[in-house]
Amino acid sequence: MKTSLTKLSSSLLLLSLPFSLWAKPMGLVTKISGKVFVTTEEGKTSTLRLNQTIDEKSEILVPTDSALTINDYYDGTFHLVGGSHLKLYDKSVHLKTGKVWVQSMNSRHPLALTTANGQVNYLKGEFIAIYDKPTKRSQILVVDGEVDVANIHDQQMKYSIPAGSFTVVDDDVPRAPTKVGHQSLNAALAEFKSLPIEPSVSEGRSIASVSEKEVPKKKGEIIFIKSHRLPASVSMQGRSNKSGKARSVERLNPVPIKIYGTSWKENEIKVSPRTPASINIIAPTLPKNSASNVQNHPEFTDSLKNETSKQPKFSKELENLIQDLKSF
Questions:
Q1: Verdict on whether the full-model pTM lies above 0.70
Q2: Residue 199: pLDDT above 60?
Q3: Domains of the chain, with CATH numbers?
Q4: Pairwise CA distance, residues 31 & 34, whole Å
């Protein structure tokens, strides 16, 4: 009888303990920025501190300009930014509003993230979940691995979303996966840059927010284009210097260039077919004919006639030919 009373008193003592001692811890705060609040299942709200344990069914509220990182007990990490509201359960979390970046190293226990209209089932992987409460729209962007996105009420309506793709759950119906560009992926991860980055799931791959070692840049190379055509960026008209005088453009190759309709060479002399009226040209004067003043000498005239008559009119061969023709 005494033993029964002892067991009964022990049971009553355990039942009288605060309910918080019975709560199951679900996460640990590993990084915090600004003020972040937690509300327990009993409705008690307090400010979170670094290395504080978060119990099951607790709700986390991250105000604007604040950030939080928590680790669960299934090798998962959750990064939350300002404006997010998350509730923790065993092997699952419920995103009421905002954004969360999930990094999971788990490969044994099926885990889940739910929103008001969608559910993400995952093991080992990395993804970003967004839920916009005013529009009731969920968006899942997979960074690494593969996750299943289904309707919150019908698990048969689902799609497998591979890495580098995203889907939208609108009107409780998930859409087919769509590829996302590299810039869009980096823009989505840029919102979590202020948070600590866990090692990436895939070997040899780094998260966009991780500062990698600087890769030595290759020096530039000058390429000479062998062409008889000037590049479009080279203007054919000379540029003007500060004094207003035009400078000639240097040729890029020895091929001559002909310009029609304009003149761009410096100090070019324009040839005009007409002489300006201001220039007087003086014509050269010829010597006057003085033949009328010359007197002929009779002896010189007679001698000239005799000598002229003696000169042969034709060459010797031609003269012999003429004589031969006359003899016939």
A1: no
A2: no
A3: 22-190 (2.60.120.1440)
A4: 10
